[in-house]
Amino acid sequence: MFSIIDIETTGLSPKREKITEIAIFVHDGKKVVDEFTTLINPEVNIPYRIMQLTGINNKMVKESPKFYEVAKHIVEMTEGTTFVGHNVHFDYNFVRKEFRELGYDYQRKKICTAKLSRKLLPGRRSYSLGKLCSELGIENPHRHRAFGDAAATTRLFEILMKVEKNIEAISLRELNTSLDRELIRKLPHEPGVYYFYDSDGELIYVGKSKNIHDRVMSHLSNNGTKRAIEMRNMIADIGYEKTGNELIALLLESDEIKKHLPRFNRAQRRSGSQWGLFYHKDKKGYLRLKIDHNDRDELPLTTFNSHQAGKNHLFTLVEAFSLCQKLCGLFDTKGACFHYNLKQCKGACIGEERPEIYNQRVSQAIEPYRFEETSFMVVGKGRADTEKSVVMVENGTYRGFGFIETSFDQNLVLEDLRNCIRSYPDNRDIQQIIRSYLKQNGSSQIILL
Question: Model-level pTM?
Fold first, then answer.
């Protein structure tokens, strides 16, 4: 089921502006089965430029219902449906904000007809709703009004569904005869990990995606390389596991590949680069850096494809932070290092610089490779609206992930979060995945232990 939704607003920012009109068409995949439209009293002044664009003025909305008066109907009408819109994030974020102000966490799966049009109707001059409707012969006499734009988006959505089915039908003809076509159509449009099996039931590939269905379809229609075609023709069965978000998908995919070593995951099967950057504190209290083989139990700070690449990187750190070549394993001598004679080393190699002073610069040099906090949990979206995902790192070591049932107004209890964690092995790839995720997503979902 789908809810094709369009709104009009007092401006462009969900944080500052309000909804003035909403239209909803509920679609079962074949036809519209329900519809609803109403003006909304935004309880703020509508700017003149917006009145010119939409034709909605303050007098028109004065006696209209406020959002809270139609909120329950919107929730019930769209329950269990996918939120569809043209540039869907605009409409979805406004609707979510209105509900958030009422203390309700409104969440729906989303489909963007603008994004879908770029994929299924390539080569168009413009993907704005007006231009697409004009090219496709979709009439919309009420542009920039919620009902007119929602009706036009509904017609566009129906066209896109037909195009997508035709594309799938063409690509499915060339597949392994053992592969159940109905299974493919039922794959979820959600984040997760997917598994390809051959006719003997052997796992031949593991992948992850924000949208399992679309990623699998890209594999099944891939004629780009001989290897891609070979894998596609071998796929006799498909499995999947929903993860709720990309971080869990990345972590699970990495573990599954290392555990099962699938045939077509050749690049990812490698346990990692052969050389790593390590550090330890010597008997005199100095922090020492070293490029070494990745066959030791300790996890490296970062990895390299060759010993020379690692040394070049370490030379860069030495230069940038005035570190000692000798203490970094780059200059073998019993006395002072080469840089000491050039006044570029402050004498840690011969004890002239105190360990606590020297170690401050070493800590600065390796800071980008370490977690800002050593013990924390990353809480994210779960596989359902009533669930959260939890990733745990303790004392710098990845402990695993899990899922916990929760509700919008429920406070998360640390002990419950710990108990939901399923243990997974730590390794340098996992550490890199988590570091990259935190770097891109900040610390808004972090709980310190």
Answer: 0.54
